[in-house]
Amino acid sequence: MKIGKQTIKLENTPKILNTSSMVGPKEMQGPLSSYFELHTDDIFFGEKSFEKAESKIMKTCVDNLIAKNGLSKEDIDYIFAGDLLNQCISSAYCIRDLNIPFFGLYGACSTFCEGLMLASLFVNAGYAQKVIATTSSHFCSAERQFRMPLEHGNQLSPTAQCTVTASGSALIVPKDVNSDSPYITYVTPGKIVDMGIKDMTNMGAAMAPSAYSTIKAHLQDTGRSIDYYDAIVTGDLGIIGSDILKDLFKEDGLDISEIHNDCGVLIYDKDSQDTHCGGSGCGCMASVFSGYFYEQLKTKKLNKILIVATGALMSPVSSQQGESIPGIAHAVAIENEV
Amino acid sequence: MKIGKQTIKLENTPKILNTSSMVGPKEMQGPLSSYFELHTDDIFFGEKSFEKAESKIMKTCVDNLIAKNGLSKEDIDYIFAGDLLNQCISSAYCIRDLNIPFFGLYGACSTFCEGLMLASLFVNAGYAQKVIATTSSHFCSAERQFRMPLEHGNQLSPTAQCTVTASGSALIVPKDVNSDSPYITYVTPGKIVDMGIKDMTNMGAAMAPSAYSTIKAHLQDTGRSIDYYDAIVTGDLGIIGSDILKDLFKEDGLDISEIHNDCGVLIYDKDSQDTHCGGSGCGCMASVFSGYFYEQLKTKKLNKILIVATGALMSPVSSQQGESIPGIAHAVAIENEV
What we know:
10 helices, alpha/beta, Peroxisomal Thiolase, Chain A, domain 1, homodimer, 15 strands, seven-stranded mixed sheet
């Protein structure tokens, strides 16, 4: 049921039965390494190209999710997937091999929450019993897609973020499935917000206003206050974007600094890992949610969280043509009790 | 409610309240010209780039859909949109200006049916009252995206298709809205089918097996026979792809030649327009359905149709890396009586 201006209440509170995460070598050197289920030390993951490696990381992550729940791929009703590559080839080649009816998504780095929203809305409406949402990104495929080939050896701007090599996947089921898994209670699909940022190396600044817009809409629509949640987790605003988000709320007289976390800030050690403003990419929230935050929910260290994946909807072509960077953010409320 | 292996029955039968279509100059020289609502004779549509022109065509098409139903953009709950461009920039820049909560999709040329499925499932579940699905494509932006810049002046292969410069949009509302508009009764999301075709200039051959797979699944799931429908309409298989589809059904002992139509075949005059195997692109089914077939339904010349948009999920990068072309097709059943 739609409530307020853009939020949907999931009256049947579907569950996130389980998650799966896989990361690359750099992410395994970061502070969250113990939370990631699978990893590879080989940035090519045994493949001949970065794009094929990314697709195989997603496939390995999804295969693991299916297998560890004692399921086979035929048991999955639908899969929602997306990535950052041109024409979303990481997802397409992954899901070709899975043979599951497929909805392709593109929401840049917001795609994990976009998929989670749609998967949970499908289960909530009784359209399906088992739906997977997954996304991936890869540092090397993203660099040559959006910036420069690695061979170019260009220096990163201090505002830049490092695309995470990772995938995360979540399996959504009806609430009556026997498990103490957390529920999805509300989703707030975002509007595009574009404040005119044109700097492709400052994604955090481009995306922060959209995170602000969606979180604010979510709170207004649900009547909840900021402190209802144990944590409000953005996807990949990074250090600068997170500061902007906090400043925007400060202008409303709200201090979110205690409960705000950003997956892009959490995934790397900023002092030792040379990742500038932090991590980014479709795989950032996907892996950090599926690895770290899902564990925090299961162990009741956190009981009510709002995850807000943020995306920058430009392309190199639109930037070359002088366009600014449109941002979008999608929010999903996840709670241990309903 | 899910029925069979991959189909969802829409028990609340949402309506396609209205559609809107806009095409470019070449499409206005084709046999369906009288059915398209809007057109431009300027391939740049007053913009400085083909990409900006494409986005403006989508925006004009959606604006028209909203305005002609006496609505404002604030009345629209959600919009599902996608296009063929890298990072879907046609949709992103269109919807930035619309300020409607947005789900970005990528299903290549299958995206129109992907959006129509999700929009109608949202309305069916009571998540929204007014949802728009839209897609666009542009010959010139697609050529430089997937093939060669136009300045290169390369010759097209005889199996090639011509990307349609067009957009189509549909407004989905609950069935109790007073209007004699057609209903959406079933949707069948497709699986990826890849028969190993690697020729980027023969999309019809790459996509035909996925159309066959989805139509067959739809018929099995619903228990309907081919002749239940007045027309089975594929998106952009073109001449060769349509022949392959008919051959595949012939192997099952089924003759679909009388009721099969393909938007890519219908949109151009093959003898006079030098479009080789016909039209293709996200805008092909979008404009031909929104222009021609919606009119056929409203005037009761057709009462039960199955539209099946087909997509080729490769990118130039995956083709350069030696990958074959994964195909996908999504089917939507539209009927005047329920």
